[in-house]
Amino acid sequence: MSEHGRHLLALTDRLNGTESYDQAAGLMNQILDPVDGALERLADFFEAAGEKAKESDADDGFDLAQDFEEAAVDIRRLNEDLHLAVDRMRALTTPPPGPPVRGTYSAATAVPTPAVVAGRHR
What does the pLDDT look like over 72-103, one tens digit per residue? Predict the structure, then answer.
């Protein structure tokens, strides 16, 4: 496995072991950051690979360059589709439960039942 593959696998393991949505969002940001995230850098990589393929005099160089350029566009589109995912993950944090609601009985606020009302009028 490559160094980058090991890094992504370790990141995945850390994500699986997070104890909060906030921690998970922080790890996701390493992949989805629109400026410096791994997806943006991967798109840059494919663009560079396309430029390298264009340098070839072979007929397949142009086709390969187009494949790489399409991959870069697809990756950027994916990153745009997921641009709110970090914030959405962070928002999944459930608020702590509030204090328990205690019921109280007060004769002044009690709603009379028909039997009680009938008993008062006699």
Answer: 999 999 999 998 999 999 999 766 565 665 65
CA distances from 115 to 91, 92, 104, 111 (A): 51, 49, 22, 12
Tell me how far apart the alpha carbons of residues 73 and 79 are, in angstroms, rounded to a whole number: 10
Residue type at 6?
Answer: R
**Cα separation, 82 vs 32, whole angstroms:** 7
Mean pLDDT of the chain: 85
32 with 86: CB under 8 angstroms? yes
Instruction: Select from 35, 36, 22, 39 the least CA-distant residue to 86.
Output: 22
Judged against a pLDDT cut of 70, whether residue 110 lies above it is answered with no
d(CA 12, CA 83): 19
Which three-class secondary structure state does DSSP give residue 16? helix
Q: How far, in whole angstroms, is CA 31 from its chain's centroid?
A: 10
Task: Report how far residue 47's alpha carbon sits from residue 71's, in angstroms, rounded to the nearest whole number.
Answer: 8
